[in-house]
TrEMBL record:
Known EC number: 1.4.1.21
Catalysed transformations (reactions): L-aspartate + NADP(+) + H2O = oxaloacetate + NH4(+) + NADPH + H(+); L-aspartate + NAD(+) + H2O = oxaloacetate + NH4(+) + NADH + H(+)
Positions annotated as active site in the UniProt record: 217
Stated name of the protein: L-aspartate dehydrogenase
Organism of origin: Halomonas stenophila
Remarks, miscellaneous: The iminoaspartate product is unstable in aqueous solution and can decompose to oxaloacetate and ammonia.
Enzyme class: oxidoreductase
Length: 264
């Protein structure tokens, strides 16, 4: 039987996920800010119902995916989880806010919902989380993107993105700071922190490289298990160069997992 999906946010990632939805999963509801509601209704032309709050949904989605960014998770996450729904999340950076994290965890516990943190634009989160069970000594993360991918972010206050002529580190700090300062660009830092050694102990470098067209994520982890380095060179989405294609694909995978009795 076809399962019915609710999507929070319908920007670059949301429309890519919609395009690639697996057979058996149908987009039934899209939740957007009031200001976008009319335009989104026009875009979807009746293919899904457009809402601005979960309370307006009289039925029960089989899965809710958040593709809205940190404000979208903060606005809708609690109500979705209190309804006992499964919420797949890409805006993991919002969870650097401990109060929000606790609110969402409490809502899930009390309402019977489940929050599934997606691997997003990176790989290796399964191995990192397993490695943590034996003790981790060190986890570092570097993100390197083209100037156009950092445009409109806090990076513009730290470096002249139009004038940069060589690969340059413009931010060094912990994962919590990175996720808060770069809400559309550093969710991966928070994902790695949540799978590994936490927000404060995950060291992060953010880099701009005028010679690259990729979104590169490099993770190094060391612990009782041994050591690994993962370098992922992702293609950005054409419609939003901040966002890697793999992040959208991780949402598609979550939809497929919801459909299949056996999943990887
Ligand atoms: N975990 C990961 O690896 C990754 C996570 N991400 C996260 O995914 C988010 C979405 O990416 P992308 O689609 O490319 O970004 P876009 O900016 O293209 O789309 C996000 C959409 O969500 C809307 N939105 C904002 N607030 C709300 C809200 N409260 N309720 C519903 N919708 C809302 C935005 O509206 P408006 O434009 O008005 O703000 C926009 O239309 C990023 O912001 C980032 O936080 C992205 C890449 C990787
Ligand atoms: O998509 C990416 O490359 C990473 C990203 O934007 C994020 O971590 O928020």
């Amino acid at each position: 039987m076809t399962q019915r999906l609710m999507m929070i946010g319908y920007g670059a990632m949301g429309s890519e996920v919609h395009r690639l939805l697996p057979l058996g999963m149908e987009l039934a509801w899209v939740m957007v800010p009031e200001a976008h509601a009319a335009a989104t209704r026009d875009r979807l032309a009746g293919r899904a119902e457009v809402l601005t709050a979960i309370e307006a949904c009289a039925e029960r989605p089989d899965l809710v995916v958040e593709c809205a960014g940190q404000p979208g998770l903060a606005e809708h996450g609690e109500a979705v989880l209190r309804r006992g729904l499964t919420l797949a999340v890409v805006a993991t950076g919002a969870l650097a806010d401990e109060a929000l994290f606790d609110r969402l965890a409490t809502a899930a516990r009390e309402g019977g919902g489940r929050m599934q943190l997606l691997s997003g634009a990176v790989a290796g989160m399964d191995g990192l989380a397993a490695a943590r069970e034996g003790g981790l000594d060190e986890v570092t993360y570097e993100a390197c993107k083209a100037p156009r991918s950092w445009k409109g972010s806090h990076a513009a206050q730290l470096i002249d993105l139009d004038a940069v002529s060589e690969k340059t580190v413009f931010f060094e700090g912990d994962a919590g700071e990175a996720a808060r300062l770069f809400p559309a660009n550093s969710n991966v830092a928070a994902t790695i922190a949540l799978a590994g050694v936490g927000m404060r102990d995950t060291r992060v470098q953010l880099i701009v490289d005028p010679a690259t067209r990729r979104n590169t994520h490099r993770i190094h982890a060391k612990g009782r298990f041994g050591e690994f380095t993962i370098e992922l060179n992702g293609h950005p989405l054409e419609s939003n160069p901040k966002t890697s294609t793999l992040a959208a694909l991780s949402v598609v995978r979550a939809c497929r997992q919801a459909l299949e009795p056996v999943s990887f």
